[in-house]
Fold:
Amino acid sequence: MNQLAKLIQGAKEKAESAEKKVSENKKKNEEQIVQLVAQHVYPLNKSQTKHVWIALSANHLFSPIVKISGVKNQSILFNENEWAAFVDQQGVLTHYFYSTDPIWQPIKVNSKVIEFITIHERKVIKIRDEGPSEVYLGWESVMELWNKLDVIKYRLKCLSSEEFGHFYGNLITGVAEIGGDLKNNIMSVLEPLMAINCNNAAIMLEVLVSLPGKVELDVEVAKVFK
Structure:
């Protein structure tokens, strides 16, 4: 009987461990799903398998971000400070592709690590963060990224100046105090704003259409803490 109890307990612990692992993996996958709005996307190579994105991240209070994406859903995200620090390495990264030095040590830039590797006899930089996110860029993609630095800078400045995160927070707090249909309430607030703050109003419409679950959840949270 004791042996049977031990076997049952062992099976139970094994099942709990497996369930915990599945839960952790699910949470990790959910964290990797980045919800972006107000996106501007530019290709970095002729085959258009790699892109640079400038957008607002709903996962980070609608703050401006730069995202570099590659094949097989590979991507890496930079906030404004991380992006500025990455761009500061432009000279080093460019020199790598022209250098004859066989070994280059990785560079840590804030939370990102830049590695210098060779794939099929071609020089490549690998950018990764402290999590599972990573992306690989060859010479063509890196040079095209540098060519787009001005437009990236401009887009980031525009998104930052709009302060959509504050706009969103104020709107959510306001409609949380109104009864009735949530979408109609938001639309009634947005319509007068179309003429005076059309950019934020348009972004809010995009959020309402693409992320309705987030809007509903944020309103419910606002009701609790009002």
Notes: The CA atoms of residues 128 and 134 lie 4 Å apart. The first strand starts at residue 36 and ends at 43. The first helix runs from residue 2 to 32. Residues 36-161 form a domain with the Transcriptional Co-activator pc4; Chain A fold (CATH 2.30.31).
